[in-house]
Amino acid sequence: MGEGTVTGLGHAGLRVDAGGVRILADPWLSAGGAFLGAWFPFPDNSHLVTPELLDVDLVVVSHEHLDHLDLDLLAGLPESVPVVIPRYPSTIMQRRLRAIGRTRVVVLDAWQRYPLNGDDWLTVIPEQCPMSHDAAVLFKLGERSVLHTNDARISLSQARRAMAEVGGPLDVMGVQMSGASWHPVRYEYDEVERERIATIKRVGKFKAVTRLVRQVRPRLVMPYAGPPCFLDDDLFELNSGLRPGGIFPDQGEALAWLADRIPDQPGVCLLPGDQIRLDDLSTTRDPHWKDFRLDAGPEERRRYLTEYAARRRPAIDAAWAANPVSRPGLAQRFKTHLESLGTLSEYFLARIGMTLRFDVSGPHGGVWDAHIGPDRVVVDLDGGAGHADYRLTMDGRWLDGVVSGRTRWEELLLSMRFTARRQPDRYNDYLVGLLKHADRAALRAVERFEAARDPEETTTIVVGGKQLRVSRYCPHAGEDLAETGVVVNGVLRCLGHNFEFDLTDGTCLNARCDPVLVKPADYAEEAV
């Protein structure tokens, strides 16, 4: 690897070489994929796994998702190589790294600089709301800078501070433009409704990134939209490019969107092995891809993915073998596990308040109802009667992994190995937060963050030619609505996570969330 380069590793992974320091950032290169053998990098990046590429001085990992925290890869690196991670309320990353024998783990606070060589450094920029444990990584490399946003939805104010930290405009800015969500693709919608929701989420993500890039104006923007690809037969039809639309755009689609909306913004799409030279920001293409086209039609994409799936068949089979049919006692293990979650946070339970039905197939399965909130969790193993606000249907083998401790809830949900239904069809972030964190410190951090927000601070928007004052910060994750708020058909939509608010009374229309404040623009003057 040459000096002064950024090399795409596939997905959101980068290798950075500068000032004599060699760094891997969020590398995902292991043959086993991630999330119960469901996700694999697209396109196949296995040609990069060489002793030369893995000969590094440092690894930095943004968050614990296994398409970023490649435990198999990290376990094989020399013990002398430190792994740098952000500090989150939960210590799950430290624990997972210790479990694979990593003894040199460096935990950085937000904006704390880790020295690389001379005046070069890196730092981490976690999302403002602790409900999501995601972070960007900022590199200062001589006269150049690289902002690697990974999956983090950083705010404009954070991006502006990043520019201040490096002393000028950002040179390379990597932006994530693909979602990583099981909604709506695993929900029991008809095809028309599923695609309608997917389009809203896809376009919302694109617009949010476009607004950020338009304000930041990096010298070179690099969308690394993912997307994951799904090589198991059970999930294959979720793949990007097999039909129009969907929730998982590829890198080429993301770059084309940015080029259309910001035509004077230089951009580049890196395939695994492609390089950017930091001195002049020119690109060198990996000859491995001379016969590959991101913009290939559906049949060519299907053919490529089918051949890729054949190469990864051993890994897929291994994921199934590691999760055999459920053992006796699954129901009681499930009950114990779910009811233990109810002891972690009264704050979350009060904001969930629903019945979650599990329809579990396979040996020792059944229909089990978890009544979550307002102050505890009670599991009825003779469930199925009465209304359920939320239903999850899955093979018991995958659920057994969670309740036995082999798998975390979010890994199961991201695996897409289930189907779901909501009645009413409204998102509840507290339910997802309780499951994905399952950690008292992480849940308390969310409670403290939400309690500290000032609901009276407002910003002005224009609706139908009239000015309104609305809450400055989205009550969901604290996004600055002066930056991320748009009005669509008389509804205020936060582009951070697509939460929508009625502009008559501030009610959240599509999720369980506190309302925004809505006042006439001249409210203060009238009050005087």
Automatic annotation (TrEMBL):
Keyword Iron: yes
Keywords (A to Z) from UniProt: 2Fe-2S, Iron, Iron-sulfur, Metal-binding
Domain named Rieske: residues: 440-528
Entries under InterPro entries matching the protein: RibonucZ/Hydroxyglut_hydro, Rieske_2Fe-2S, Rieske_2Fe-2S_sf, UPF0173_UPF0282_UlaG_hydrolase
Signal sequence annotation: none
Keyword Aminoacyl-tRNA synthetase: no
GO molecular function term, any single one: oxidoreductase activity, acting on paired donors, with incorporation or reduction of molecular oxygen
One Pfam family from the record: Lactamase_B_3
PANTHER family hit by this protein: UPF0173 METAL-DEPENDENT HYDROLASE MJ1163, UPF0173 METAL-DEPENDENT HYDROLASE MJ1163-RELATED
Protein name: UDP-MurNAc hydroxylase
Lineage: Bacteria, Bacillati, Actinomycetota, Actinomycetes, Propionibacteriales
